[in-house]
User: Which sequence fits this backbone?
């Protein structure tokens, strides 16, 4: 008993020593970081500097994210800083569980990361760790030479001759049209998620998934859950190790089980001259085999294209048809151009879609207001700086030591009034959906980047735009108007009072949020609730 009592003070001193060592190490690391920040510029405005470990910020952003209010939260952070006229309100920094994060919506900083200082920034080890289980070592998560090799391998697969073959889209549109016919009210969020998944499975692997009709698709449900859990992992930041992953791992096995037979068959057939599908068309997996027969490379890239290819199309089409249901004059305008350039019966060609200018206006306007990825990240791969946001006036460089995470917001960038011309008859307020503004207006460089920019600009950009244009033409060749359901069952709108702050004049965030369906930023910017629309001939 006496021996046990003697050990207790010794054990206490061990804990005290470890705590002291941790504190000394933390102070030393913070001092080294501070030297690097000052060597390369300075600090950007600090959000809540009284919270040195960022525990309150971490709690606040997580709580808002759980309510799908992370966009509102970030907007208000920038606005709070903008109240100080000596600070640049487009960039600030915070601590999250002790780690420094820089937040920016400044076009100069975004341009620097994505283009001018491309070699200084990448996805980084933290992002690769958080996304590696889902995306492996695919082009989406890799850096350096591995990323460059993947980019060069995949680029030919999105060449014009590949994306101008529109039969893949036609097959799935023909499955879609009967579902929306007959005056039925349809949840377009779910509808286009299933449509886009079917098209992605067909394009990537030549598989007829048919989730449009098979409402109990195990694969569809698994991918939905994976997206949700991955978004939780992303939102939780340094605390994402607390997110349970049992269901996540089970769903990844379901996705791999779905892909495996096709991948194995393609590998087994790879010795033949041209491994074709039964209809003579190439698939993405067969194109991948032209550059590598590594099974893990194939799994990583196919899984990435299945998820990324589906999400971009699904969310954007849901927003497009929601806005068109609210703007019958735009539908009438679109149908006039379709009739004049294509006709109301025949299948459009690649050239036809390019000639119907209002298609690009509608898609550009939708992606301006509802960018697919409202937030994205880069990590500093070496000690560097961002060109703007530091110093007393907010116009100096911001020091960025290696390993620092920079979060940039395409959404806030697109809704920055300083980047737009004055309002007028041909240019309504920037928060309004008005496709014709694109007829005589070109955005300032790096003020509109729905597919990002620089060397990592989305390879599938033109493919996605062609797919969505094709759907719009085929749907409005048959239907003349849409109606979004109001009242019971309609998507809850943001209450602008919830965005307003006491004693403050309502600003752009309140105006933007007024009467829009709730938005959920789960990797992509999607409607939070079903949106019910009726199609009329």
Assistant:
């Amino acid at each position: 008993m006496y021996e046990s009592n003697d050990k207790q003070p010794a054990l206490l001193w061990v804990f005290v020593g470890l705590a002291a060592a941790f504190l000394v190490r933390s102070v030393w690391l913070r001092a080294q970081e501070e030297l690097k920040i000052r060597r390369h510029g300075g600090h950007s405005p600090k959000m809540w500097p009284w919270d040195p470990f960022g525990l309150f910020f971490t709690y606040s952003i997580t709580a808002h994210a759980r309510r799908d209010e992370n966009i509102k939260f970030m907007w208000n952070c920038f606005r709070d800083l903008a109240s100080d006229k000596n600070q640049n309100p487009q960039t600030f920094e915070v601590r999250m569980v002790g780690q420094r994060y820089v937040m920016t919506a400044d076009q100069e900083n975004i341009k620097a990361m994505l283009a001018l200082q491309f070699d200084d920034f990448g996805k980084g080890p933290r992002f690769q760790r958080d996304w590696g289980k889902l995306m492996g070592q695919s082009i989406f998560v890799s850096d350096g030479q591995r990323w460059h090799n993947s980019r060069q391998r995949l680029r030919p697969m999105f060449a014009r001759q590949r994306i101008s073959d529109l039969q893949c889209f036609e097959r799935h549109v023909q499955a879609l049209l009967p579902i929306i016919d007959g005056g039925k009210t349809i949840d377009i969020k779910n509808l286009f998620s299933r449509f886009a998944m079917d098209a992605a499975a067909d394009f990537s692997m030549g598989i007829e998934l048919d989730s449009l009709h098979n409402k109990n698709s195990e694969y569809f449900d698994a991918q939905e859950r994976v997206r949700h859990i991955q978004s939780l992992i992303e939102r939780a930041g340094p605390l994402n190790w607390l997110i349970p992953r049992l269901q996540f791992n089970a769903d990844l096995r379901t996705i791999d089980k779905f892909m495996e037979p096709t991948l194995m068959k393609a590998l087994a057939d790879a010795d033949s001259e041209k491994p074709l599908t039964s209809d003579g068309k190439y698939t993405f997996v067969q194109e991948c085999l032209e550059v590598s027969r590594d099974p893990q490379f194939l799994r990583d890239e196919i899984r990435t294209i299945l998820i990324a290819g589906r999400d971009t199309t699904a969310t954007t089409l849901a927003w497009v048809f929601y806005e068109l249901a609210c703007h019958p004059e735009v539908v009438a305008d679109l149908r006039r151009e379709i009739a004049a350039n294509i006709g109301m019966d025949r299948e459009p060609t690649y050239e036809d879609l390019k000639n119907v200018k209002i298609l690009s206006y509608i898609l550009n306007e939708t992606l301006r207001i509802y960018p697919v990825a409202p937030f994205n990240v880069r990590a500093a791969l070496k000690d560097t700086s961002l060109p703007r946001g530091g110093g007393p006036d907010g116009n100096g460089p911001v020091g960025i030591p290696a390993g620092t995470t920079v979060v940039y917001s395409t959404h806030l960038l697109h809704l920055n009034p300083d980047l737009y011309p004055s309002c007028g008859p041909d240019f309504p307020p920037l928060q309004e959906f008005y496709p014709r503004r694109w007829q005589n207006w070109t955005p300032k460089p790096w003020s509109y980047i729905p597919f990002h920019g620089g060397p990592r600009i989305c390879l599938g950009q033109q493919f996605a735009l062609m797919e969505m244009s094709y759907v719009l033409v085929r749907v409005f060749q048959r239907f003349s108007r849409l109606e979004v359901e109001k009242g019971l069952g309609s998507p809850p709108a943001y209450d602008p009072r919830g965005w307003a702050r006491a004693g403050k004049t309502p600003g752009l965030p309140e105006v933007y949020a007024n009467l829009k369906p709730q938005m959920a930023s789960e990797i992509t910017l999607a409607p939070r609730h079903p949106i019910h629309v009726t199609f009329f001939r």
User: Anything to note?
Assistant: The first strand starts at residue 91 and ends at 96. The mean pLDDT is 83. The two ends are 89 Å apart (CA to CA). The chain has 20 helices and twelve strands.
